[in-house]
Amino acid sequence: MKRSLTLEIALTHLLTKRKQTVVAMLGVTFGISMFLVMISFMTGVNDFTKNLAMEEAPDIRIYNPLEIEKNTIIAKAAPDTTGNLYVVHHQRPKNVVPKLRNAIMLAQSLEAMPEVKGVAPQVATQVFFNNGPIRITGSLQGIDVKKQGELFTLARKMDAGQLIDLLGINDGVILGYGLANKMNVGIGDRLSITTSEGSILMLRVVGIFSYGLADFDNARAYATLATVQKVMQRDPSFITDLHIKMYDNSQAKAMAATISKRFGVHAEDWSTANAPLLAGESIRFAMTGIISFTLLLVAGFGIYNIMNMNIINKLKDIAILKATGFESRQIVGIFLWQSAIIGLLGGIVGLLLGYGFCVALSHTPFPGGSVVRIATMPVNFNPQHYIMGFCFGVITTVLAGFFPSLKAAKVDPVQIIRG
Amino acid sequence: MPILQAKQITKYFHEPETVQVLKGVDISVEQGEFLSIVGKSGCGKSTLLYILSTMDTDYEGTLNIKGEKLNGWSQNQLARFRNENLGFVFQFHFLLPEFTALRNVMMPALKLGKYSYAEIEQRAIDKLRMVEMDGFAHKMASKLSGGQQQRVAIARALINDPAIIMGDEPTGNLDKVNSQRVFEIFQELARQNHQTIITVTHDQDFAAGSDRIIVMSDGQIVRE
Q1: How many helices (H) and strands (E) does chain B have?
Q2: Both A165 and A209 in a single domain?
Q3: What is the pLDDT tens value at each position of chain A, 419 positions in all?
Q4: Same-domain pairing of A249 and A383
Q5: Minimal Cα distance from A15: which residue of B?
């Protein structure tokens, strides 16, 4: 009964000062809707860039890195001369064969591990793509067509032709969209490639892919393992990379360490290979957090001001309520209800408005240019953000109303009534 | 036993400089008494009334109402005590402007929570009828004239059947006709309901009609 009495007084106050109530509500509404737009767009961009890099990137990559021999050969030759210091200036890297040893066996053992979804072997090499007088450098990747199709998104990124067309023809190639454009070739056209060792091979274009990332689309081509092994003049066991896809990629870091240890190979996980990308993401996330927090804080200050004014206008009412027996708790209740109602209503409208903005934004064309190919702004619709924004908004409002309410409870009725 | 007994009430104002406004006032009021406190402006009569009303707790001396010693009670305890046992009528009527006359009258009873909602509403209408304001029950308080508002304020003071009704210049803002009406209501309360009335007033006629007059000067009672 008493509780509903304070609520009734609160509602009456709100309804008689409709304009003021709406202004206070709008503060919360804009705070929350802008928070939603910011965080949805930011996480949308984050997910988009992450996906671009993630989908095609292996969770763990096994390859032979170039390394400088730590122990100098002279130390090896005379191991008993301990205490001596050998200094070798300008040591050259030793000749590392990019071939992974026992790659096929290794792939089989890796695939037997329960966390591993699959392993795709690759042969990667730098080549010149030639069409008439044009020579463009790029990378040619020999892939296991079936495995690549299963584990990675290449098959879905085809602009023209199909990934499996590689299998139907000898010496077929799939070119990146940008690369094909530069050389002005299409499906069925032929082009030649030159390796750094000087061997030349004619390839026929069977497909064009586009990831939407210039790095890939302008400089990469795929062919079968056999084709690339042939142009490199290597045997069929020649594999340079093993690309591992896991069921749970958050385990990649630990898994990479396990693989390195167990098989004695260099295994690099996704987060290590893409550290700058992840750093960018956390910076964006921190910025979003700070700006959103500020927005809601400003809304909170607005409500603080309005509630303060409200209480100054209502000093007489507070005095009379106290004189007729209302306790401090109930005076606090009256004004806390008001800010809670403002917060709740403003919050609900803010959620709807924020959702509306997000929908509108997700239909806005995105000027990606030639760097990324994307039609509209990437926007995330995550219910968690909506819950978070709403809770945060309501909590800020209630807090903003709480301190003025305490002030109201401290009003001395005698001073007000006697004037 | 007196319904209200105050002993050696002493109070200082500290702003702008320390002044003693009440100099050991003793006062004792019986149930059903209609008491008027008169005196020149600044003699401390209003200050005394607000101490007796329990709203002002910054004083020395003892205060007993209905056999309860109220010194040292918390603000919330005193608020509950006022709610149940004291009714107030002020010079400026102080109704809640956003509520109807009826709602204003009901408010202290809703706070007390002793009766059901329907009973409270019925009682409020009865009280409004007593001050001849039942016809205006559903009008907004802000739409009533000064005299009407004052009568609604009296109905509000009566809603919980308080033992003591206190008035700070209850007719100070009213014309002759309305003043007379307020006086009659107070007299009726004292005579018929045996409720105690304590008012501070400048109104000579009003004071003259009451059962007992206390004259104050310079923080002391000079004549009864």
Answers
A1: 7, 10
A2: yes
A3: 445 788 888 888 888 888 888 988 888 898 889 888 888 888 888 888 777 777 777 888 888 877 666 666 666 676 666 677 777 777 777 776 778 888 888 888 888 888 888 899 989 888 999 888 888 899 999 998 888 888 888 888 888 888 888 888 888 999 998 899 888 888 989 989 998 888 888 999 999 988 877 778 888 999 998 898 888 888 888 888 888 888 887 788 888 888 888 888 888 888 777 777 778 778 888 888 888 788 878 878 888 888 888 888 888 889 888 888 888 888 999 899 988 999 999 999 999 999 999 999 888 887 766 556 677 788 888 888 899 888 888 888 888 889 989 988 888 888 888 76
A4: no
A5: B98
Q: Is residue A320 part of a domain?
A: yes
Q: Are A342 and A303 in contact (CB under 8 A)?
A: yes
Closest CA to A411 of B216, B79, B208: B79
Tell me the residues of chain A between 287 and 316 that have a Cβ less than 8 Å away from chain B: 316
The amino acid present at A382, given as its one-letter code, is: N
B168 at interface of A, judged by CB pairs closer than 8 A: yes
Range of the domain at A124: 61-67+97-270
Q: A306 and A169, same structural domain?
A: no
Report the alpha-carbon angle B117-B120-B125, nearest 5: 130
Residue A181 lies in a domain: yes
Q: Does A324 reach chain B within 8 Å, measured CB to CB?
A: yes
**Domain final residue, candidates A270, A296, A327:** A270
User: H or E segment at A142?
Assistant: strand A134-143
CA distance A404 to B109: 27
**CB contact residues (below 8 A), chain A span 10-39, against chain B:** 12-13, 15-16
Q: Is B121 on the interface with A (CB under 8 A)?
A: no
- The span from the CA of A206 to the CA of A192, in Å, is 14
**Residues A256, A154: one domain?**
yes
Residues found in chain B: 224
Chain B contact set for A418 (CB, 8 A): 46, 50, 168
Residue ranges of E strands in B80-224? 86-89, 164-168, 196-200, 212-217, 220-223
Structural domains of chain A, count: 2
Does residue A348 belong to any structural domain of this protein? yes
**Pair (A296, A247) in one structural domain:** no
Q: What domains sit in chain B, N to C, each tagged with a CATH number?
A: 34-43+79-223 (3.40.50.300)
CA-CA distances (angstroms) from residue A137 to A126, A159, A224?
Answer: 7, 22, 19
- Among B56, B59, B65, B96, most A C-beta atoms within 10 A, so best to mutate, is B96
- B156 neighbourhood in chain A, CB within 8 Å: 324
Residue A298 lies in a domain: yes
